[in-house]
Design goal:
The complex is a heterodimer of chains A (262) and B (283).
Chain A (H helix, E strand, L loop, with lengths): L1 H30 L19 H8 L1 H35 L1 H16 L2 H15 L2 H4 L5 H22 L2 H10 L4 H12 L1 H17 L2 H5 L5 H11 L1 H30 L1
Chain B lengths: L1 H12 L1 H22 L9 H6 L4 H31 L6 H12 L4 H12 L4 H8 L14 H25 L3 H9 L4 H30 L2 H6 L7 H9 L8 H30 L4
Classes of the chains: A mainly alpha (262), B mainly alpha (283).
Chain lengths: 262, 283
């Protein structure tokens, strides 16, 4: 019995080391100015600096791509909420069949890999609505779709966890219209789910490379790929910051999930 | 009157959502397939051309990579899941491992490629540390940009994804089933082989399919590792269709994209069917 436990412990130790090493290595590369060749136990703590972050922030290319990524995150999150919350709330109330269709349609983005989606999008829109290709914000609908399987699930969980019909009936009988009911009664009651969907959408946008790369839009991941050759330390530092942001967003999301299940 | 118009308006309220999907998901997908079948003077349909001759190797390579990383991911991820459930009595083990898995399963793209370059590149920290204990990765010919290197990188999100799939399935194994098997005289290995494994099988197979499609669609990490020279299908599609460049092979690019959709669709449908089957036991 004891040897069984030891076996499982060793599995966890090995996988933890595997998870930790790339992150430790990236951190060291980004913030320590000692090449690996010269690294030894005597200088492990020498020459650590956060200067690479500052150098990157001074780069105007970085600032423009950071602004673009932030703008895309906000736009994607807002469009996701505007599109999903009213539609799904109404489907919950009125039509189990439509609810089922929405559920199936929300898995479709898994079927169309990002690379196929973006080349089809570019081909279809280039001749008909080239603005969507030219303007960086034209890719927002594709980002909404990429995030859809995750955002749909969280909104669905939120709507299933409240007594939607009673809330809506109460609000309607007091004279509130549909819009007012959705945004001032339903939405605040599923705010945890909306926050989660927002964070997931932001995580998707901050990590998305394929779509931006094929449409030649300079988002943060594209800047990273470019800066890898110019200023590797700075690029790795920003990569690490992005990873930390995504990780904390997912961490917060898990926290919200646990709290609302209680 | 107002009531009447409201009733008529009902289907319309669902219109924006479905119209959005039609325009930004279905139309692009249809465009890919339409172009994939356009022969435009070539002797063979691009759909045939894309999977025969010189481009066949791309699909073989991409699929081999996906199957290898999925197989190892299922194996290791399942071991981690079992370990998490077995050591559940120790506080913090589950929340730490499952929490980190949900973070790592979402990792990928450029930052992950950076992390593995810093660790297992020629001048990587792990490469250096392993050399200290006489494990010479470079001497063995291991390169982070090669097949097994990319598999290693993909395992960073494949293993935790499998853990996340299997932990709930393991939780679904009821203690009473174990006790029933024991009271009927089954040994621990017999219980795992004859009771637990068959119940877990749909989750394991479904997880495998999900991991295959997960790495099959991945693009950014391999692109950053190899600075764009990878042999993966998506990189080839990009070469044919990037921006406005005319390569004369655009339909071939669409055909490769169409094949990717078909393969992914098959994997996703299989996964959904297996998930439904594995949930049968959790009522």
């Amino acid at each position: 019995m004891m040897s069984g436990r030891k076996l499982w412990w060793s599995v966890l130790v090995v996988v933890t080391v595997f998870y930790a090493i790339p992150m430790v290595a990236m951190t060291r590369f980004a913030f320590q100015r000692v090449p690996v060749i010269k690294l030894s136990w005597s200088n492990v703590f020498d020459k650590w600096t956060v200067a690479p972050i500052g150098e990157t922030f001074a780069d105007p290319n970085f600032r423009s791509s950071a602004l673009l990524s932030i703008g895309l995150s906000v736009a994607t999150a807002v469009l996701t909420v505007l599109l999903l919350v009213p539609t799904m709330a109404l489907a919950h109330l009125r039509s189990p069949r439509v609810r089922r269709w929405i559920e199936v349609s929300a898995v479709l983005p898994f079927v169309v890999p990002a690379i196929a989606l973006v080349v089809g999008f570019a081909g279809a829109f280039r001749g008909t609505a080239p603005l969507f290709i030219r303007n960086p914000y034209g890719m927002v609908p594709l980002l909404v779709i990429t995030a859809l399987p995750f955002t749909h699930r969280t909104i669905e969980n939120g709507l299933s966890s409240i007594d939607l019909r009673t809330l809506v009936d109460a609000s309607r009988s007091l004279g509130a219209g549909w819009n007012r009911t959705i945004w001032t009664v339903v939405a605040p009651n599923i705010r945890g789910s909306i926050a989660t969907a927002t964070f997931l959408a932001i995580t998707v946008v901050l990590g998305e490379f394929t779509i931006a790369s094929l449409l030649l839009k300079n988002t943060l991941p594209l800047y990273l790929a470019y800066a890898q050759g110019q200023n590797p330390q700075g690029a790795f530092a920003v990569g690490l910051v992005l990873t930390a942001i995504s990780a904390s967003l997912i961490g917060i999301t898990n926290g919200i999930g646990r709290r609302s299940r209680r | 009157m107002a009531g009447l118009s409201k009733r008529q308006a009902r289907p319309l309220v669902f219109l924006p959502y479905f119209a959005f999907l039609a325009v930004f998901l279905v139309w692009p997908a249809l465009y890919v397939f339409r172009s994939a079948f356009e022969r435009s003077g070539a002797p063979r349909s691009p759909m045939i051309e894309a999977v025969t001759g010189q481009y066949r190797g791309r699909f073989v390579y991409s699929l081999q990579l996906s199957f290898a990383s999925a197989a190892i991911g299922v194996l290791v991820g399942s071991l981690v899941a079992i370990a998490v459930v077995q050591l559940d009595s120790i506080r913090g083990v589950r929340s730490a491992l499952v929490g980190y898995s949900s973070v790592a399963a979402n990792m990928g793209g450029i930052p992950l490629a950076f992390a593995f370059l810093a660790a297992f590149g020629m001048q990587g920290l792990a490469t250096r540390l392993l050399r200290e204990i006489n494990v010479d990765l470079v001497g063995w010919g291991f390169k982070i940009t090669d097949f097994w290197g990319i598999v290693l990188v993909y395992l960073y999100f494949q293993i935790p994804l499998m853990t996340l799939i299997l932990v709930p399935a393991l939780d679904g194994l009821r203690r009473t089933w174990h006790e029933a098997a024991q009271s009927l005289g089954a040994s621990a290995p017999q219980y795992w082989r004859l009771v637990a494994f068959p119940i877990l099988l749909p989750a394991l197979l479904g997880g495998f399919l999900l991991l295959v499609s997960n790495s099959f669609a991945a693009y950014a990490t391999a692109f950053a590792l190899s600075s764009g020279s990878s042999r993966l299908v998506p990189v080839q599609i990009r070469f044919f269709l990037q921006g406005e460049t005319i390569t004369g092979k655009t339909n071939l690019g669409y055909a490769m994209a169409a094949w990717m959709v078909l393969i992914t669709a098959l994997l996703v449908v299989g996964f959904q069917a297996l998930v439904r089957r594995s949930e049968r036991w959790r009522r």
